[in-house]
Every structure is written in C-alpha cells, then in structure tokens.
Amino acid sequence: MKLSVGLKVANNLSLTPQLQQAIRLLQLSSLELEQEIQIQLDSNPLLEKVEENSSTESLSTLESQETGDLTTELNADHLPNDLPVDTEWDDIYTHQSTALATPEYEEREDNRQVHLGLKEHILEQVNLLHFSLIDKLIAYCIVDSLDDKGFLDAELDDILLAVNRLLQEMENDEEVEEDEVIVVLKHIQHLDPIGVGSRNLAECLKIQLEGLHDKVPYISEAKSLLKYYELLISNDLNKLLKQTGLSKEQLKSAVDLLKTLKPYPGLEFDQQESEYQVPDVVVAKKDQHWQVQLNPDVMPKLRINSFYSNMIRRADQSDDNVYLRNQMLEAKNFIKSIDERHKTLLKVATCIVEHQRAFLEQGAEAMKPLVLRDVAEEVELHESTVSRVTTNKYMLTPRGLFELKYFFSSHVGTTTGGEASSTAIRAMIKKLVSNENPRKPLSDNTIAEMLKNEGIEVARRTVAKYRESLHIPSSSERKVLI
C-alpha cells in the first residue's frame, strides 16, 4: 500500500453553540422559557429586560448627570474623611433602651392556613382519644398503612407483626394479639372522615350507613344491597331484585342513598394543586377572519444594556474588555434565538388555524385530520422542528385552551373516499352515548353502524378503542333498569 497526501473537499454539517441554543429554546414551555431568561439575566450583565413602565432616559444620561461629582471625588489623590451618605443610622436601626421597651419588630398573627394531609388529620384525633401506649402504637401503625383513598393498604397480620417488632425494640415484653388491632381499627374507622381505614368499598359504605340515623329512609334496604356487593358493582340489577326481594322503587331509592355516601373518604385531603397553563398563542375572530397572535404576557422583551455596551472599546484587549465583548455576543445570540422561537411558533400556529377553521367554528366533530408532515411541508420546516414547537405549547381559542398537539390526529377513511379525523370520531361517539336511552345503551356494533350511516367506515374494535380512551364504560355497565 502506497501512502499519499492530498486535498479533499467535503460538506459537513455541525451544530454550532448558537444553533444548539436555538433548538433548546424552541422546545421549552413558557414557564421553562421564563426560568431560562431569568438565568441569563442573572449571569449576563449585558442583557436586560425592558420594563413596560421604564423611564425613557438612558443610563448614559443618568451617569453624566448624577455620578459626575462622585467620579471626580473618587479619582482625587486624597479622599475626604467624611463621604456623603444617603441613609441615616435611625433609618435602619431602631432605638431600644431596655429589655422591657417596645420590641423592634411588630408581632403579627400568623393567618396562614396549613392544609393537613389525611394521616396528620387522623393522628390529631387519635391523640385526643384515651388510648394506652400500646393502643396508640397500634393506631400509628394503622394510620401509616392508609393509602391516598383512605383505605387500609395492609393486612392485619402485617400490622400485628410491625407492632410486636416495635415493642421488642422498645424492650417491652408485652405481645399484642389480633383482637386488639381490630378494636383500634374500629375506633379509627369512626373518626372523621367516617369510613377511613376500611379494607374495601363495601365496608366503607357499611360504616357510613351505620353512622346515619335509623330513621333515614331506605337505610335497611341499602344495607341489604351491600350484602350482594359484587352484583351491585357489576350493575346486575335483575339478580339484585331476585336476591334481595326488593321492589324496583325500593332498589332505586336504596341505590340513590348509597350514591350520597363517600366511596373514597381520603380523596378530600388530596393536596394536589391544580395546574394552570398559560397560553402561548391566542386565537380570536375579528371581521370574519381568524387572527393568530402570540400571548404578550409570555413574550419577554430583552435588549442590550447601553451602559455596559458603551464601555466596550474596540482596540482594547484587556481582560475586562474581552469579557464585556463576549457577554455582548452571547446576549445578542440569545435575543436572536428568542426572536426565532417566537417567529417559528407563530408560523406553525397560523398554519394549524388555517387547517382547523372548521373546528373553531363548529366544534370537535368538524376536526380535520392533520399530521406533523403536512405542517412541516407547508411552513418549510423539518418535521422534528414542528414536533418541538408543538410540545408543551398551548393555544387559547374561543372553544377553550388546547395543546398544539391536540390539533394533530390520524385519519379514517369515509365511504365517499374522503378522510375523517379520529378526534372528530371520538366527539361523535361521545355525543351518541350522551343522547342514548339509558335503558337500552348503544353497543359498539350499533355505534359502528350509525357512524357508517354518516359515511365513516369504522370497525367495531376501533369504536371500542376510542370509547375506552374517552373513559366511557361498556354498554352493559351503562345500562340502567330502574
């Protein structure tokens, strides 16, 4: 083999730091973008945020007017003994002659509300009961075994074993039996909320019924229904009528009474906060035209700090000057990346609105099939770029707040040779189910036939898949006989 040296010309695509930054900013949500901007503002002195009520007077003007005298004094050979100050001692430190005098800080009542969880709420009530040390230890182990719904998520044998182990660690020779655990559990089940610590739904409802007054109508019928809990859950009302011997009117009234109870007593203590999404794009109809604009509340206005930019000297190669120059370059690239992000987002959102005008005017049933490739070809962007733009971005429309991904859906063929969106089909299924006769609910085959009459070819298994995605139970579970 002979070695040789030669030249070769080739094209190579590399991701520059500026391009990497633009791609990263493109996929950030509005909240993440706000955090990223704050990080850049804290780290880059050349970057500043434009405030709406900011003064129009530049920093250079303020510098020449207010700091001229101070600069002259600082450049002098000898500094004066007493420099001018703008704060008095008493403005910061208050006088306090004796320990009995008025306190420096005013004592105020703490009005903050502390939201207790389920376990903390139960333990507060346990501490008020006249329990012995061992019973209180059992109660703590029971409360520790509660799940988010308020049910007991452990077997009695496991709780018994945990209590005995704790007693051994405490060097206590006593041994707890299962009957003692059951007694403490009964006490906890009648605390607020009543039914907490139940081992299943039937026991929870039974305890709540026992807590009602005996004169409540149909309470005995409701208790008899809980004996056939499996038939009640499966909605097999015909067998319930035979097994309980109740009339249809009694059965209906007993079921209505059970519906007034709390099936999951612990859910009211759920501390999950509601998530509020801020729209990135706002769509409104003006003069019979749909207008798309970016939300001004999430559009940060950034600029270069004129004070520091004026300090940069072109021929100076000192460390300070090089630092300022690099920071200015980073600030300009960051502002450019933010601007490109907004332009791309507005371009993609406008394209989506043009395709989904029927949805904005008529609703989800008029949704048109749309995929990422269609938008990418129209706006002349790569499909991955469109995917980044539509992730965690929200559009506010007259019909509600939707993620941009919501407007993309697969298609199903129609009898006329056209296409129907899967989102539109789901909306049609939901409408058909909401208008059905509860005594004769529509089966999946019936829904498929009704859609076929509308010109949409959908198989039964497809209808079942869409129905399950809408969290709609099957026809047998939706059937109501009384």
Automatic annotation (TrEMBL):
Domain RNA polymerase sigma factor 54 DNA-binding: 323-479
This protein's GO CC annotations: DNA-directed RNA polymerase complex
Pfam families given in the database record: Sigma54_AID, Sigma54_CBD, Sigma54_DBD
PROSITE patterns recorded: SIGMA54_1, SIGMA54_2, SIGMA54_3
Keywords in alphabetical order: DNA-binding, DNA-directed RNA polymerase, Nucleotidyltransferase, Sigma factor, Transcription, Transcription regulation, Transferase
Domain RNA polymerase sigma factor 54 core-binding: start-end pairs: 116-308
Biased composition (Low complexity): 53-67
One GO term (biological process): DNA-templated transcription initiation
Region Disordered: start-end pairs: 50-69
GO molecular function, one term: DNA-binding transcription activator activity
Function, in words: Sigma factors are initiation factors that promote the attachment of RNA polymerase to specific initiation sites and are then released.
Family statement: Belongs to the sigma-54 factor family.
Protein name: RNA polymerase sigma-54 factor
Source organism of this protein record: Acinetobacter venetianus (strain ATCC 31012 / DSM 23050 / BCRC 14357 / CCUG 45561 / CIP 110063 / KCTC 2702 / LMG 19082 / RAG-1)
